[in-house]
Amino acid sequence: MIENLVREEIKGFKNYEVHSIPYRYKMDANETPFELPEGVIKNIQEIVKYSQVNVYPDPTAEKLKEELARYCKVVPTNIFVGNGSDEIIHLIMLAFINKGDVVAYPHPSFAMYSVYSKIAGAVEIPVKLEEDYTYDVGSFTEVIEKYRPKLVFLCNPNNPTGSVIEREDIIKIIRKSNGIVVVDEAYFEFYGNTIVDAINEFENLIVLRTLSKAFGLAGLRVGYAVSNEKILEYLNLVKSPYNINSFTQRIALEVLRSGVLRERVNYILNERKRLINELSKIKGIKVYPSKANFILVKFKDAEYAHKKLLERGILVRDFSKVEGLEGALRITVSTKEANDYLINVLKELLI
Ligand code: PMP
Question: 18 alpha carbon to ligand 1 midpoint, in Å?
C-alpha cells in the first residue's frame, strides 16, 4: 500500500550513501583534520551553561549572521543560515523549483545538486566539464539559451575536480541566465577568489558557503547563503523555524571569532602543495591541479588502489565508477603525518 502513496519522484530513487568504515586516517570527505580551537574548548562549559536549551534556539540566528556578515563584508540581511549548505540547496529547490523546471549543473560535480533536483522533480541538465575538468563556459551558455534553466549551479572550486571558473565567466553566465545562478563556494578559503561582492549587482545570484570545510565544523552543520534580500525573503519563507540548534549557533560564533582560520588554511595549502608534488613523482598516477583542500588523482586500477589504501586504514573517496571520473580517487589534504603515510603507502603499492 505504501508504495502507492509515495511520490513518483521518490520511487526507485537512490540517495547519497555514506558508509561507516573503521579508519586510521580519514581523507574521504574534505573535512579539515583540526579539532575545535583550544580557546573554544576551554569555554565549552560556559557555552553549555548559558545556552538555555530548555527554550528554542534563535530562529533568525541573529548573532551568527552578524559575524558571518562581518566575515563576508556584507550586511546581516544578506545572510541566510542553514543546517549545512546541503539544507540550503534543498530550500532553494523548495522555494523556486516546480516539477518539470530545468536545473543545470556541472558534471562531474557535487552529487547533491542532482539528488535534490530529483527530489524536486526537476529536469536535470548536467553540463560536461572539459576533458581536463576545466569549466566549458560555452557549453553553459548554450544550455542556458536552449533550456532556459530556472537554476544553474556553479561549484567554485569544483568538487571533486578542484578546478575553478573565472569571475568574468561566472558573470557571463549570470547575465545570460533568466533563472537563479547559485555559486557554491564551499571551498572558498582554499582558493581565495569570491563573487560575494556582486550579490547586490545581480538580482539572480546566490553564493553558498559552509563552515564544514576550512572552519572545521562539519559535525555542527552550518552552511550559509549570501544573496540579496529579495531572494533571502523566499528562502526564509520555506525554512523550518529552528533549523540551527542553540549549541551550534554559539560554537560557530566562537569559532568565527577565534582567529584560527588563516593559520589552519595556510597549513592545508602547504600540505596541498607538498602532496601534489610528491604524488606527481609516483609513476602510474595522474594528479590534477587543485584550488581546494582535496586532490583528484587517477590510477590505472583505481579499485585496487582504493582497496589497498583501505587495508592500510586510509579512507579516500572512490569516484572511479562515476561517468567521466573513471580511474579517479579523491584525496582530502590532511595532517603532515597522514599525508606522509598516504604517500608512502602509494609509493609501496605502485613501485
Ligand atoms: N557544496 C559542496 C561543493 C560540497 O562539497 C559540500 C560538502 N561535501 C557541500 C556543499 C555541503 O556542505 P555542508 O552541508 O556540510 O555545508
Answer: 14
Domains of the chain (ranges; CATH) run 2-30+261-350 (3.90.1150.10), 38-257 (3.40.640.10)
Question: Given this model, what pLDDT does residue 351 score?
Answer: 63
Angle at 262 between CA 108 and CA 202, to 5 degrees: 55
Handedness of CA 141, 320, 213, 13 (dihedral sign): positive
Per-residue pLDDT reduced to its tens digit, 201-236:
999 999 999 999 999 999 999 999 999 999 999 999
pTM recorded for the entire structure: 0.97
What does the alpha-carbon distance between residue 51 and residue 318 come to, in Å, rounded to a whole number? 40
CA nearest to 296, candidates 185, 159, 166: 159
User: What does the alpha-carbon distance between residue 233 and residue 4 come to, in Å, rounded to a whole number?
Assistant: 35
Q: What are phi and psi of 167, to 5 degrees?
A: -55, -45
218 CB within 6 A, ligand 1: yes
- 82 CA closest ligand 1 atom index: 16
Alpha helices in the chain, H assignment, sequence order: 2-5, 38-42, 44-49, 62-72, 84-96, 112-120, 137-147, 167-176, 229-238, 246-257, 261-280, 302-311, 336-350
Separation of alpha carbons 85 and 263, rounded Å = 24
